[in-house]
């Protein structure tokens, strides 16, 4: 899926109307029908009680009026409050004409804000993607009134006052919705933590927008859903052997943080790697060998931290960072790794690297090393680690700019972790992930991701971007499967590891395409007599 700007959304609207030869207001009616379908499926007339629809002067308000009509026809008790304006959109006027007199309509004024008893269901159809400036005056007073009233707010398309694709001033008025029901494609604003209190849970309803326009639209915002990674994992050929799926090297662990190495190793094994060797501080040798018998282990000469880089020749990918610590000797290991991973006569492509956790912090302290990053190196920072590599971000939108710029400048793949983990590519694309849940906000979840990415980068048949996009998606999916089994509160990182297999299985290619074994007879006369 892609994400469009507010301006592109308007173009998409128009392209759909032109391409499908739609009569006036047809798209608005589709949007209203989709919204009503979503709403009525969740809340019956009894449970809903009296519904207040707040309508602005544009097509968002038109949606609100058309929704009011549908809910009235469905026996819901609906009343409408209109925000007065100098001009109304054509679709608004159409919907207003069709609203029966039986639906009470009041005009909002400063002195007469609508009455909103607590727990009233309020549909916010004041402003949508046509918002041209922050709310002020009467609309802002109405939003404040709504917040005080404590209604159950559901936003139509987008909470009013929120820009679809850009930040609004810190103290500007924005509706706080429990649910946002949007049309066609997700909006960038939905994916950013700073907007969580406005957007609530969001839902996308299909309204048959032009697929041709969407396919050709120029945007660098993408949303990784199940379709984007369907069949992304190549089937394992019948005569494959452990060498076929790569030999990965994990550099991880320090005193007190051996668990990070154990989790990353477990995730790498479950991620389908052929062979895994872990170089760990020698104090962790027994712990590691006992907990990960499938992996090989090279104890470092140092007991408490890593101090030595093994010969890289046998390996197809290297992961460094989980539980590493920031000892000077480990910094030297990282430096040597970056120097040796570059393409050479014996290795035409740079060695795939995954850099995480303390290895990122070391890079942040020695930014001169960024110039050594081999092309397509994968960095997996959480927001604080990312800012140590760049600069503090003013807000979530600025952080995305920094992220995009960083990935392009250093020609690497940056996985900015969070609720909608964002993968930035050297081409300047940003791919937001759709899987995962707050149960994964628990120590060690990131180490699991590093292990999975290590396995997928060691896989010879997966190009760098596809491997990382699949890894991020499947990591979230494994977290979702784990949460379904244990609940979110009880979820620990090891549960994610245990669900990697089922998560990847959903995206494995079929070994044999699904075709019948024998020709299907279409002409009965050729069949047996
Ligand atoms: N593509 C789709 O998926 C579909 C989209 N549809 C729906 O259309 C919606 C977009 O409609 P829209 O373009 O008419 O804009 P909308 O947000 O209603 O408001 C514009 C009006 O508000 C005004 N205004 C703006 N800011 C203001 C402010 N701060 N304070 C005061 N006034 C302000 C602005 O005035 P102006 O900026 O000209 O001064 C103008 O009059 C979209 O969100 C969805 O619900 C569906 O019907 C069909 C499928
Ligand atoms: N609220 C959330 N929703 C979805 N995924 C989450 C959420 N919180 C954390 N995660 C995921 O869990 C992982 C946490 O990584 P990280 O912060 O590095 O943890 P740790 O350092 O403890 O291993 C990331 O992949 C992140 O995307
Ligand atoms: K709205």
Walk me through this protein's architecture.
The chain has 18 helices and 17 strands. The protein has two domains: 214 residues, YjeF N-terminal domain (Rossmann fold); 263 residues, UDP-N-acetylmuramoyl-L-alanine:D-glutamate ligase (3-Layer(aba) Sandwich), CATH 3.40.1190.20. Strands 8-17-16-15-14-13-12-9-10-11 form a ten-stranded mixed beta sheet, with helices on both faces. Helix content is 36%, strand content 14%. A hairpin with a 5-residue loop joins strand 16 and strand 17. The mean pLDDT is 95. It is α/β, with parallel strands linked by helices and 529 residues long. Helix 2 packs across helix 4 and helix 9 crosses helix 15. The site of ligand NPW has 31 residues, from helix 1, helix 2 and helix 4.
Reading off the top of the CATH hierarchy, the class of the largest domain is best stated as: Alpha Beta
Q: Do you know the CATH topology of the largest domain?
A: UDP-N-acetylmuramoyl-L-alanine:D-glutamate ligase
- Structural shape: elongated
The distinct bound ligands, ions and cofactors come out as: ligand NPW, adenosine-5'-diphosphate, potassium ion
InterPro entries: Carbohydrate_kinase_pred_CS, CARKD, Nnr, Ribokinase-like, YjeF_N_dom, YjeF_N_dom_sf
Pfam families: Carb_kinase, YjeF_N
Cofactor: K(+); Mg(2+)
Family: Belongs to the NnrD/CARKD family.
């Amino acid at each position: 899926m892609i994400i469009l700007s507010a301006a592109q959304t308007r173009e998409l609207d128009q392209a759909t109307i032109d391409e499908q030869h739609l009569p006036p207001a047809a798209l608005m009616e589709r949007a209203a029908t989709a919204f009503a379908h979503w709403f009525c499926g969740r809340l019956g007339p009894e449970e809903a009680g009296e519904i207040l629809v707040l309508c602005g002067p544009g097509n968002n308000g038109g949606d609100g009026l058309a929704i009011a009509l549908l809910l009235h026809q469905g026996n819901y008790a609906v009343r409408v409050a209109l925000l007065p304006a100098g001009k109304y959109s054509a679709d608004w006027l159409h919907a207003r004409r069709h609203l029966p007199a039986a639906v009470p309509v009041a005009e909002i004024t400063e002195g007469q804000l609508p009455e909103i008893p607590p727990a009233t269901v309020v549909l916010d159809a004041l402003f949508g993607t046509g918002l041209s400036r922050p709310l002020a005056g009467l609309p802002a007073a109405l939003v404040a009134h709504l917040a005080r009233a404590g209604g159950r707010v559901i936003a139509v398309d987008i909470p009013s006052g929120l820009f679809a694709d850009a930040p609004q001033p810190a103290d500007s008025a924005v509706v706080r919705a429990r649910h946002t029901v949007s049309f066609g494609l997700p909006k960038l604003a939905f994916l950013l933590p700073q907007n969580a209190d406005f957007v609530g849970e969001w839902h996308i309803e299909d309204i048959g927008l032009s697929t041709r326009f969407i396919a050709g639209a120029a945007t660098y915002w993408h949303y990784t859903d199940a379709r984007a990674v369907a069949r992304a994992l190549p089937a394992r050929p019948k005569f494959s052997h452990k060498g076929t799926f790569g030999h990965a090297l994990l550099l991880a662990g320090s005193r007190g943080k051996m668990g990070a190495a154990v989790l990353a190793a477990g995730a790498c094994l479950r991620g389908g790697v052929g062979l895994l060797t872990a170089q760990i501080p020698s104090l962790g040798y027994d712990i590691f060998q006992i907990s990960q018998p499938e992996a090989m282990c090279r104890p470092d000469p140092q007991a408490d931290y890593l101090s030595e880089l093994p010969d890289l020749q046998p390996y197809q990918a290297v992961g460094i960072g989980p539980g590493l610590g920031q000892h000077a000797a480990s910094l030297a290991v990282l430096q040597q790794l970056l120097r040796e991973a570059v393409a050479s006569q014996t290795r035409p492509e740079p060695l795939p690297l995954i850099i995480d956790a303390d290895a990122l912090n070391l890079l942040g302290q020695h930014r001169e090393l960024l110039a050594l990053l081999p092309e397509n190196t994968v960095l997996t920072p959480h927001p604080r680690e990312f800012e140590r590599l760049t600069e503090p971000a003013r807000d979530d939108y600025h952080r995305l700019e920094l992220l995009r710029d960083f990935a392009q400048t250093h020609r690497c793949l940056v996985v900015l972790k969070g609720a909608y983990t964002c993968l930035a590519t050297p081409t300047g694309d940003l791919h937001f992930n759709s899987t995962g849940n707050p149960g994964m906000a628990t120590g060690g979840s990131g180490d699991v991701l590093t292990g999975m990415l290590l396995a997928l980068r060691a896989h010879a048949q997966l190009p760098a971007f596809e491997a990382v996009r699949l890894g991020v998606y499947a990591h979230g999916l494994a977290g979702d499967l784990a949460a379904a089994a244990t609940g979110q509160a009880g979820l620990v990182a090891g549960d994610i590891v245990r669900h990697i297999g089922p998560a990847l299985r959903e995206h494995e290619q079929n070994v044999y395409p699904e075709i019948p074994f024998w020709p299907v007879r279409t002409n009965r006369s050729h069949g047996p007599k």
